[in-house]
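Please fill in the sequence for the structure shown.

STRUCTURE ENCODING:
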């Protein structure tokens, strides 16, 4: 209840700890760990959808993935590898690009799966979809 009313952790940690009968440090540690894991999963995606308990599902937008691939490729192409720091940064971008490529494959597989379900449901041609027919 306190979480929905407040945006700052200091505003809901103390009342939550008192309501549950636990120490503030324990409640703070648990919430910090939880949000650390959520932030990590959002910044290092392994799937195109992330489900967070009691908050919902977050899906990656496919057009954003394409933008990131182009952006990372431009940076890699225009960076001179004259120092170790630049080399490490380029390697990190290449790793992220590989992750994004895997996510793009997942998006395409999901689209093919949806297409096959539509074909099974409405016949071989998806142009006969009931929503596309004039009334």
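FILLED IN BY: designer on duty
SEQUENCE:
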């Amino acid at each position: 209840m306190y979480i929905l009313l407040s945006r700052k952790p200091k505003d809901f940690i103390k009342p939550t700890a008192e309501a549950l009968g636990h120490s503030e440090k324990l409640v703070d540690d648990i919430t910090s760990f939880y949000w650390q894991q959520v932030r990590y999963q959002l910044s290092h995606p392994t799937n195109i959808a992330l489900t967070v308990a009691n908050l919902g599902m977050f899906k990656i937008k496919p057009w954003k993935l394409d933008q990131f691939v182009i952006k990372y490729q431009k940076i890699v192409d225009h960076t001179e590898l004259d120092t170790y720091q630049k080399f490490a940064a380029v390697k990190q971008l290449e790793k992220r690009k590989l992750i994004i490529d895997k996510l793009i494959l997942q998006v395409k597989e999901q689209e093919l799966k949806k297409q096959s379900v539509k074909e099974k449901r409405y016949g071989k041609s998806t142009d006969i979809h009931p929503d596309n027919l004039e009334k």
